[in-house]
Specification:
Shape: rod-shaped
Strand content: 5-15%
Distance between the termini: 80 Å
Radius of gyration: 26 Å
Number of helices: 7
Order of helices and strands: HHHHHHEEHEE
Helix content: 40-55%
Structural class: alpha+beta
Number of strands: 4
Amino acid sequence: MPATLSEKGTDVLLDLPPYEQDDPAIQALIDASSRELQRIEDYLNTVREKLRPHAADDEYQLLALWELMMGLPVEPTGISLATRKAIVLAAWKRRRAGAGIGWWNLISAVLGTEEWTHVENTAVDYQLTIEVPFESTDFRAGQLIDMLTRITPAHLSIVLIFAGGTRFIVGVSLVGDQL
């Protein structure tokens, strides 16, 4: 057997009868095909691992695939990979989100490390007021509104207060409204 044969090529060659193992043409054919087979197996293992939402990235556009499947903006410009992944994970987890700590964790996942507050039933019964430390024009604002709409119980009115005092009532306000 030649020294240039890959490990997979050696395994394949050992499955052949002894009289074919010494043939240089067979060895060359096995070497070429086994190297290609190894590349395919490596690719499939990588895709299998990174197809999970917590491991997805941009190597094979798998994070973009998750964004598409979750109804999120696909590959938004200016948004870090970590932020995109956090938003995908939050969207993936929202399928089973309920109230309480599950609700809080999902909103925190969208906002990342930013500090935010929420107060219930302050001005009006069944009103949830959420204050976030970024402008209403930030990419996360749209993601937050979408997440709040999907996971907050329908009987609650949600008021968002952005940095700078901009207020937005989810489900009522339109972009550009001054409240």
